[in-house]
Each structure stands twice: as structure tokens, then as C-alpha cells.
Predict the 3D structure of the following.
Amino acid sequence: MNIEGITLREAVADDLDAIALIYNSLWCNWIRKAGAWEDWALCGRFNAAMQLQRSPITLVAERNGAVVGACLVGVFENGAPVKNPRWQPVYEELLAKATERAETADEDLEGSLFGDSREKATADRFAATGDEYAQAQINLIVIKPEWQGAGLGRRLVEEARRRMGEEGRTKFFLMSDNRSNYHFYDHLGMARIAEDHSQDTGDNFIVYIYGGEA
Ligand SMILES: CC(C)(COP(=O)(O)OP(=O)(O)OC[C@H]1O[C@@H](n2cnc3c(N)ncnc32)[C@H](O)[C@@H]1OP(=O)(O)O)[C@@H](O)C(=O)NCCC(=O)NCCS
């Protein structure tokens, strides 16, 4: 795969489903395999909207009219995340639907719906401490599976860094965990600045906070 023909642009309303589809293909395929199509669609759309509404900087990678990746970046003011007004109403609507669905969902579906939101709560607690890295946050980076390994992730992170710099941010952080692709962040020169073991319920799940220079 050659990423030369890929353009980066801001996310528009029509991108929600495309980002949701990539999100689902990476993390929520089990719901589709179980045949719960409505839950699967809700999971991707809700989580994509949740990330978008806290990302004033949105980078969508497009090739021949198709979305092949995205990087969503938050910025913090006085220790709190700045919201993206374009996506706030979309998020509110999907939050209501996800909350209603979670009332009768089993533990696995509830986790797929709200796991990332809980991670954001951890991020916000970290940012509220006033840590020097809590100026901006890479909220989400996803590449369509067939486009992975072609240099697009690196390009998106480089562009995200440039845009954070434009916003006057000199450092940023992101959340990962010991079951995710955290080596990618090591490889791009970020440092693990904190670990959170509080979600380890005997299954050795450890949340990592990485910090980088914008
Ligand atoms: C992780 C992800 C964003 C990386 O993007 P990508 O386009 O596949 O990565 P790139 O091709 O741009 O790789 C850039 C560099 O990082 C390296 N790299 C990529 N993934 C890596 C990994 N998991 N571990 C270590 N290094 C990695 C590449 O070898 C490459 O090195 P080089 O430029 O020095 O040759 C992408 O694979 C993805 O979306 N994965 C699924 C979702 C995910 O894991 N998101 C982030 C974690 S929550």
C-alpha cells in the first residue's frame, strides 16, 4: 500500500459512520459475530462520537473518497478538555441511546459501549493534576486494517503534533494499555510517564499513559 495519494482533512458529519466502521472492525467485531447488528452499529457510532466531541483537532485520512484512517486530538484549558461544538449534539444523542441500551446489556456489551468513556475519565483526572503533558491528548488513532504498516499512522501522528504546536501546545499525552499497540508509541519516541493498576482485577490489565513532545 502506498500512502502518497492519501489526503488529510477535518472530519465532517458524513464521516461518523466511516470512523465507526473502522473502530468496530478493530474492537467490536465480537458483537457483529454474535449477530447483534444494532448493538454493533451503536457501539461504533457512540464511541466515534464520544472521541470526536472531545477533539477540537480532527484528522481524517481519505483515499479516493474513502476514509482509511483517523486521528482525533483533544486540547486542554485549565486542566479540562475543550469540547468540539460540531460533534457535541451528535454525542449527546448517542449517549442517551447507549445509556438506555446499557441498562439491560450484559457486562461485555456494557464494557464495549462505555470502556473508552471510563478511560477518558482517567485521562481527565490525570489532566486535572496539572501535569506538564496534559496540554493536549491523542484521543484516538485508527487505521483501516488493510492500510496498517504503510506509514499512515506515523504521518497522522506527525500532523497531529504539528497541529498541537499550532494551538500553542508543547507537550501531549495519550492513553494505552498493556493489551494494545503501545510499542507503536515507544517506536515514535514517546515515553511511558505513568501506569494505572487500579483496573487490574486479577487479569493483569494495566493502563499506560504516554507523553510526547508536540
Ligand atoms: C497502531 C497503528 C495506529 C499504527 O499505524 P500504522 O499506519 O500501522 O503504522 P505505520 O506504518 O505508520 O508505522 C510507523 C512506524 O511505527 C512502527 N510500528 C507500527 N506499529 C507498531 C507496533 N505495534 N509496534 C512497534 N512499532 C510499530 C512501524 O514499523 C514504523 O516504523 P518505521 O517508520 O521506523 O519504519 C495502526 O496499526 C492501528 O490503527 N492499529 C489498530 C488500532 C490501534 O492499535 N490504535 C492505537 C492503539 S489504541
